[in-house]
TrEMBL record:
PANTHER family per the UniProt record, alphabetical: NADH DEHYDROGENASE [UBIQUINONE] IRON-SULFUR PROTEIN 3, MITOCHONDRIAL, NADH DEHYDROGENASE UBIQUINONE IRON-SULFUR PROTEIN 3
Gene Ontology MF annotations: NADH dehydrogenase (ubiquinone) activity
UniProt name for this protein: NADH-quinone oxidoreductase subunit C
Family statement: Belongs to the complex I 30 kDa subunit family.
Biological classification of the source: Archaea, Thermoproteota, Thermoprotei, Thermofilales, Thermofilaceae
């Protein structure tokens, strides 16, 4: 359809619905499609969020999927590079952008509502 550039991937945690929603925004470099933004929304079960990778459609998805995997725990099947991008390499905690993530600082529990 001519949308040759994946501009972003965002993830939304909906714990009350038991899903992680992944939102893709695609654009085009073609002159006749400039200024048109396509949004695609997909939901995956929160306890086992798995989606097919879109790197065969948009090669730059490799890094955007990697960030979404790291921050929300969505596994993109077929992405060959799901490893830490922003968090420390030895991170073993839960995905930090999930709404039930607890922030612990200097041994003090902080509950952010």
């Amino acid at each position: 359809m001519g949308f040759d550039h994946l501009a972003s991937i965002e993830g939304i945690d909906w714990p009350q619905d038991g899903v992680i929603e992944v939102v893709y925004h695609a654009e085009s470099y073609r002159e006749d499609l400039r200024g048109v933004l396509v949004e695609i929304r997909v939901r995956a079960p929160r306890d086992t969020p798995r989606l097919p990778s879109l790197i065969d459609v948009w090669p730059n998805a490799i890094l955007l999927e990697r960030e979404t995997w790291e921050m929300l725990g969505v596994v993109f099947e077929g992405n060959p590079d799901l490893r830490q991008l922003l968090l420390p390499p030895d991170w073993s905690g839960p995905p930090p952008l999930r709404k039930d993530f607890k922030v612990v600082e200097e041994g003090v529990y902080v509950d952010v509502e």
